[in-house]
């Protein structure tokens, strides 16, 4: 796996493509599968032969769904939501059948030429065509492969072939790593491509600003046009100079609005607003309730906690990660406001790691402890013991 801290991921991928080598792209979260990926624009018969011989899965060309529709290609009917288009061949000669590797390579090359339309092709053909939706809406092999070849400087049309092991199993990730090692291929994961996508594509912009007087002071409230996760996050800004103090607060309607004592969220929000009013800085309010699982599931997690299960294990029992939150949108909101270096008001080391992976420099961590009560003491201890929050649990004093 490429270490993004040490190398330019896009430069590595582009260099490998130009050497005639595919990238192996792994989906470690949704499908647990690996695909060969190569730009359709420059694929050759030799590469077609390689990926079909060592991949053995379906040979497909993927392009942006909207572009394919505009070029006249049409979808096949599906009873499970697949985004397959009509398979095609490009008639390179009068005798072309579309089957040989060289002819499939030409078909892929021509598909990457956005000036061609369906009338230039024969169909049904031998190159499966898939439409990719927005990477922001779906993080699958189709979308990530298109973004990867686009980031590497090629037309946004990829060739993908699923990698099957010697028994024909498509879920053998170790086999994919072994293939990568055997042929000297770069192995990436979809989350790595996502992080690079967020670093390079600005999908959040400032929409409007207004003054907001509060009982903690007067702030500027900022709304955003958000094409990253399409939620209505917002920021509160107090005049600052230099590197701003920033609090990233995830929505907690029970704590922030209803005064719940099950957590320390409401008291953390109040203390953060007081600190920002006094010192200047930015509050980012993110709409990711219940560590990203939503209010309804959060209430279900509360029910499990009533039976003695902690917040970490409750999310797992409901089928989620302990913490589903992604701070990509926070990084984009900061960049939209011209901020790339911050002092972060947090106990959560995951926030720091994620922000830095998305291109935000965290120069300092400033601790923030909410009000500790007999109702939330276990909750706060779980944060420290299982979520690795930097809290001194030995010196917590519960109020009331």
Describe the protein in words.
- With 400 residues, this protein is an alpha/beta fold.
- The protein has 2 domains: 9-199, Alpha-Beta Complex (DHBP synthase), CATH 3.90.870; 202-288 and 325-395, Rossmann fold, CATH 3.40.50.10990.
- It is 35% helix and 24% strand.
- Helix 2 packs across helix 4 and helix 5 packs across helix 7 (190-200).
- The longest helix is centred in the C-terminal third of the chain and has 15 residues, at 265-279.
- It is elongated and about 85 Å long.
- The N and C termini lie far apart (50 Å).
- The spatial strand order of the largest sheet comes to 4-5-3-6-2-1-7
Helix content: 25-40%
| Overall mean confidence score, pLDDT | 94
Q: What structural class should be given to the helix and strand makeup? A: alpha/beta
Shape annotation: elongated
The succession of helices and strands, N to C, reads HEEHEHEHEHEHEHEEEEHHEHHHHEHEH
The CATH topology of the largest domain corresponds to DHBP synthase
What is the end-to-end distance? 50 Å
Number of strands: 14
Low-confidence stretches: 1-6
Strand content: 15-25%
How many domains, as an integer?
2
Largest beta-sheet details? 7 strands, mixed
Provide a count of the helices.
Answer: 15
For this entry, what is the oligomeric state of its chains? single chain
């Amino acid at each position: 796996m490429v270490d993004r801290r040490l190398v330019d991921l896009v430069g590595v991928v582009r260099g490998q493509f130009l050497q005639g080598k595919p990238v192996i792209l792994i989906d470690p979260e949704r499908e647990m599968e690996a695909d060969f990926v190569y730009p359709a624009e420059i694929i050759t018969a030799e590469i077609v032969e390689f990926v079909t011989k060592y991949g053995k899965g379906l040979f497909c060309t993927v392009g942006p769904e909207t572009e394919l529709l505009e070029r006249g290609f049409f979808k096949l009917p599906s009873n499970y939501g697949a985004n397959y288009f009509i398979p095609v061949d490009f008639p390179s000669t009068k005798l072309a059948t579309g089957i040989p590797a060289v002819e499939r390579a030409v078909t892929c090359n021509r598909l990457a030429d956005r000036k061609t339309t369906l009338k230039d092709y024969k169909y049904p053909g031998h190159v499966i065509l898939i439409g990719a939706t927005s990477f922001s809406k779906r993080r699958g092999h189709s979308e990530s492969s298109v973004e990867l070849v686009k980031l590497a400087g090629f037309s946004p049309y990829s060739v993908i072939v699923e990698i099957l092991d010697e028994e024909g199993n498509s879920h053998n990730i170790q086999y994919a790593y072994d293939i990568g090692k055997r042929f000297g291929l770069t192995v990436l994961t979809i989350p790595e491509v996502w992080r690079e996508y967020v670093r390079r594509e600005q999908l959040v912009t400032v929409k409007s600003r207004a003054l907001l007087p509060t009982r903690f002071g007067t702030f500027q409230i900022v709304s955003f046009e958000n094409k990253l996760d399409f939620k209505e996050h917002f920021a509160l800004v107090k005049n600052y100079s230099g590197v701003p103090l920033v609090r990233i607060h995830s929505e907690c309607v029970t704590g922030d609005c209803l005064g719940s004592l099950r957590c320390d969220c409401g008291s953390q929000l109040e203390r953060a607003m007081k600190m920002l009013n006094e010192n200047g800085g930015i509050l980012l309010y993110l709409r990711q309730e219940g560590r990203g699982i939503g209010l309804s599931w959060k209430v279900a997690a509360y029910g499990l906690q009533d039976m003695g299960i902690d917040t970490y294990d409750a999310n797992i029992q409901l089928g989620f990660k302990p913490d589903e939150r992604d701070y990509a949108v926070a990084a984009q909101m900061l960049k939209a406001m011209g901020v790339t270096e911050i002092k972060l008001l947090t106990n959560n080391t995951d926030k720091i790691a994620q922000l830095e992976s998305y291109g935000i420099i965290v120069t300092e961590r400033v601790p923030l402890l909410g009000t500790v009560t007999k109702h939330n003491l276990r909750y706060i201890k779980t944060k420290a013991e299982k979520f690795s929050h930097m809290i001194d649990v030995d010196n917590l004093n519960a109020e009331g």
